[in-house]
Amino acid sequence: MSGDTDTIHAYFDEFVATADNPMVVVTTEAAGRRAGCLVGFTTQVSINPRRFLVGLSKTNNTFRVAAEAEGLAVHLLGAQQLPLARLFGSESGDRIDKFAHCEWYSGPDGLPILAATPGWFTGRIIDRHDLGDHVGVVLEPTAGHMRAESGGVLRFAAVAHLDPGHSA
Fold first, then answer.
1. CATH number, residue 57
2. Which domain holds residue 67?
């Protein structure tokens, strides 16, 4: 159905909310700086070769660090990890060191890995695409780990009420 812009936006927003995508935290490191943020725009974009797309907001500190990085780490959040989502989604890396407030370790290629997540993978950045207020970062998976029992993942509906650390 077509119509005015406000109506189209309302339909689109309802569609996205109903899809209830999993939320991830993306972390990176470049030139001695660590960064990470909550990300809702992600998807696998190729089967062979395996490729994954992460959308990073251009206003975000993680975007600025990732612009100089060679890779990203992508972490699934467990259904009960709202505090970790709040830390990486509502706080700004411009104001605090998020990694001082959670357990993490240096993983493959020196990327920060969040210790408590149900699973993660690292990826080499192979391309970047301007997508509007976000940049799509295309990753080639290089390493990863999944826990045997994850207990479900945190989804968009569980974090929709959070105030972002930066506007989109």
1. 2.30.110.10
2. 20-159
For residue range 34-70, list pLDDT tens digits in order.
999 999 899 999 999 999 999 999 999 999 999 999 9
* Domain presence at residue 166: no
| pTM listed for this prediction | 0.90
* 13-35 tens-digit pLDDT: 888 888 888 999 999 999 999 99
d(CA 155, CA 103): 21
Alpha-carbon gap, residue 30 to 109, rounded angstroms: 11
Question: Is residue 6 assigned to a domain?
Answer: no
Question: Which amino acid, 43?
Answer: T
**Is 164 a member of any domain?**
no
Is residue 122 within 8 A of residue 73, CB to CB? The reply is: yes
- Beta carbons within 8 Å of 115's beta carbon, 6+ residues apart: 102, 103, 104, 105
Whether 89 contacts 123, CB under 8 Å: no
Contact assessment for residue 41 and residue 55, using Cβ atoms and an 8 Å cutoff: yes
